[in-house]
Specification:
This protein is of the alpha/beta class. It folds into 2 domains: about 130 residues, 3-Layer(aba) Sandwich (Rossmann fold), CATH 3.40.50; about 45 residues, 2-Layer Sandwich (Wheat Germ Agglutinin (Isolectin 2), domain 1), CATH 3.30.60. The chain is built from 6 helices and 12 strands. The strands form 4 sheets. It has a 6-stranded parallel sheet, with helices on both faces. It has a two-stranded antiparallel sheet with strand order 3-4. It is elongated and about 60 Å long. The structure holds zinc ion. Keywords: ATP-binding, Cytoplasm, DNA synthesis, Kinase, Metal-binding, Nucleotide-binding, Transferase, Zinc. Belongs to the thymidine kinase family.
């Protein structure tokens, strides 16, 4: 790793923003990066090249906020283009592979503020590497919650609506929806079960309402 040490002596750190799809991760990432840009800090923003659902050269949230970004093939490429930056934003970190952890450590070690957003779980509810490792080493963690489309409870799972194999199938609302723990486990039966419960006059078991971010 040969990039020059930045000329400012302050310490760096890592911030991680994780949650399911439709939980506002990218919105939160964009919000933080905008604040840094307003303060005239040097900001570099990256996303994996494979995720070009909305735009190749922008990070775009589901609410259509956008900010220019550089598409990279690997975590290594982030290192290559980040040496001038004070603040580094990375979206969809789960697609950049295990090398992302060392890259974030190296950047924070050079005094940079590193902000990574990504899915903490895959479509089967399993921890989605390398986000778990990043959560362990980060100074700041934000977990964003969506709302379960079936029952309205806070949702932290991403449910894949179609039977299509593979951990990585890039898609939007046609393929994925946010679900709570229970509706995720109920799978394709969730809508029927929740509707039947409502019809029977029994309130479905819901967690106490929580203010969402
Ligand atoms: Zn639910």
């Amino acid at each position: 790793m040969s990039e020059p040490t930045p000329p400012y002596p302050r310490t760096g750190w890592i911030e991680v923003i994780v949650g399911s799809m439709y939980s506002g991760k990218t919105e939160e990432l964009i919000r933080r990066l905008r604040r840094a840009q307003i303060a005239r800090q040097k900001v570099e923003i990256f996303k994996p090249r494979m995720d070009d659902r909305y735009a190749r050269d922008h990070i775009v949230s589901h609410s259509d906020q956008r900010i220019p970004s550089r598409a990279v093939k690997s975590a290594r490429d982030v290192l290559r283009h980040a040496h001038e930056a004070q603040v580094i934003g990375i979206d969809e970190g789960q697609f950049l592979g295990p090398g992302l952890v060392a890259v974030c450590q190296a950047l924070a070690g050079r005094g940079k503020r590193v902000i990574v957003a990504g899915l903490d779980q895959d479509y089967l509810g399993r921890p989605f590497e390398p986000m778990p490792e990043l959560l362990a080493i980060a100074e700041y963690i934000t977990k964003t919650l969506a709302i379960c489309v079936v029952c309205g409870a806070p949702a932290n799972r991403t449910y894949r609506k179609v039977k299509r194999g593979g951990r990585v199938v890039v898609g939007g609302a046609d393929l994925y929806e946010a679900r709570c723990r229970r509706c995720f486990e109920l799978g394709p039966r969730a809508a029927r079960v929740v509707a039947a419960e409502a019809a029977a006059g029994r309130a479905a078991v819901r967690p106490r309402s929580r203010s969402s971010r």
